[in-house]
Write a structure and sequence with these properties.
The chain is of the alpha+beta class. The protein has two domains: 246 residues, 2-Layer Sandwich (BirA Bifunctional Protein, domain 2); 96 residues, Rossmann fold, CATH 3.40.50. It is built from 15 helices and 16 strands. The protein has an eight-stranded mixed β-sheet with strand order 1-5-6-11-10-9-7-8, sandwiched between helices. Helix 12 links the parallel strand 12 and strand 13. Helix 1 runs antiparallel to helix 5 and helix 5 runs parallel beside helix 9. The radius of gyration is 29 Å and the shape is elongated. The chain starts with 20 loop residues before the first helix and ends in a 20-residue tail after the last helix.
Length: 454
Amino acid sequence: MTEGKQLRSIRGTRDLLPGETETWDVVEGVVREIMALYQYREIRTPIFEETQLFARGIGEYTDIVKKEMYTFEDQGGRSLTLRPEGTAPVVRAYLEHKLAAQGTMEKLYYLGPMFRQEAPQKGRARQFHQFGAEVIGTDVPEADAEIILLFLAVLDALGLESWSLHIGSLGCQNCRPAYREELVAFVKGVEDLLCEDCRGRIETNPLRILDCKREGCRLATAKAPSQLDYLDEACREHFETVKRLLADRSVPFTVDPRMVRGLDYYERTTFEVLNPDLGAQDALCGGGRYDGLAEMIGGEERVPGVGFAAGLERILLALEAGGESLEFEPLCEVALVHVGDEARRHLFALCDVLRRAGVASTMDLTERSVKAQMREANRREALLALIVGDKELKEGTVTLKNLVDGEEETVPLEKVVPAVLNRLEALEEAAVEEEPEEWTGEDEGPDLDPGEAA
């Protein structure tokens, strides 16, 4: 065995341990439920792609492509990149597998790890996890509004009430050139006040300057021209319709004329959902329309699309900051406790029978004492315990103990499975009865005679 220091996880990554993974499962389960409700189907793309997919799709002058991607050369000499975001791979798959041939728009979602070589800090990691949704094949503003409502429905289902929606419009390939020209002229006038990175963006990617977080750059561009003033009639009407659709659903939002997002494929609608409890890394979700992305990555024609990506880590941090707790079902329903080797052999078989009957069961695979086994059962929050020792083996019975109220009973071995199922059903019914009734909003005051009513 090679000696040396103990190996640890790579900086910017982390292990999700038991106790955490259950919470992640709850969030991911909510995401899947809402996606099904809105009729989005899951798509799973590879974790690495050809580097050109991101260089052409995201934009070669963006910080993601220039500074943050994990890019490597495989044994065949191809340049590959761990995916830094999910939209470009989804659109690549849409084109490659000719999903448009089905004749309808596609509503897709994904969920999984992404990779960016950023400075690790709270809410920002080098391996992070996102879920996202895409509507591909339609350019109507209703798709933009639905995507936003879809994400807000996830937050609502999770009980996260602290958020703010910011929306903007970047215009399209027809109206953006005139704005770009005016913006370049403006930033050249304040060039000396800009950071080195932003000075380099003046000719290559001037819109990125508006996204710079450095205070000096933000102050220097505070009076920069607004893209909203340069929208052509079609883009202006599209944006007004999106706002009207959100207002119709009583969704509060703030119009942000500086919103450009960090990827070059966006046009027309852009949006972010922020959480005030997260400090500097306050973005829960970002998205927008990307009607030109398909062409950028080699498609033969423009394919309209709109979508969002949301960070799972950020959402979990926001839930924690807001004091929200996510409940999940206990991992263990029945713990099997043995006294002696012969009992352990019999319980091993019984444990498998219970699992095949759909009962979440566990048994100790060591030679610990009964007391230690019972402590483990309580730690796992088991509802029932099945105890077998010499007495039970001789009589062909099992001691069934209710760990909720402490009651015990003796059950013949051949009737253990139905007895367990009955006890678990009774515990579930009792738990339902103890839940407080949901208030309907109606005041159940004393009955009044119609003549007495005020």
